[in-house]
Known about the structure:
single chain; disordered N terminus; globular; mainly alpha; Hyaluronidase domain-like
Amino acid sequence: MCCPAPPEPGERPDAWPLPRWAHLPGRTAGPDREPLERAKRALPARFAAFVPADDAGLRYGLSLHDAGFFWEAHEVWEAVWKAAPMNGRDRLALRAAIQIANGGLKRRLGRPRAVRRLVAEAMALLDELRLREPGAAPASYADRLDAASLCRALAACGAGCALAADAPLVHLDAFQKHA
Length: 179
């Protein structure tokens, strides 16, 4: 199918199909783009003031990441990041998530130095996020992200995680504060 239908209004992202395989650059023929394009079409062209923590595209990226689809999560989150308000806290939080997903991918590809660098970059972004005043949008992704706990988990994990190579460095959904 050339252009899969966008998700139905109100359709939960955890019901969206996962890709049929995890893309590994240089090792797999290419990504299963259909589910990713469907998720990207559900995004607004631009978020008005903040990225809602319950945004379907953002949540789908979390589902992808926590299921081990690191390259795919990066792709979806990059689209969310592009639609996020410029210079906002959500962009920092999304960049950190993108670096964490990239770290998971690099670990799967057997590149420990890249993992350490990406974890350090994600931690620096989370530190910057914590230094910025919370916005007036308690429902935003950045304001619902427990950046301090996530930073501690990344520091404890680093490149020496005793996890299977296909497991996420951290389960990002576990660091969401619920209203």
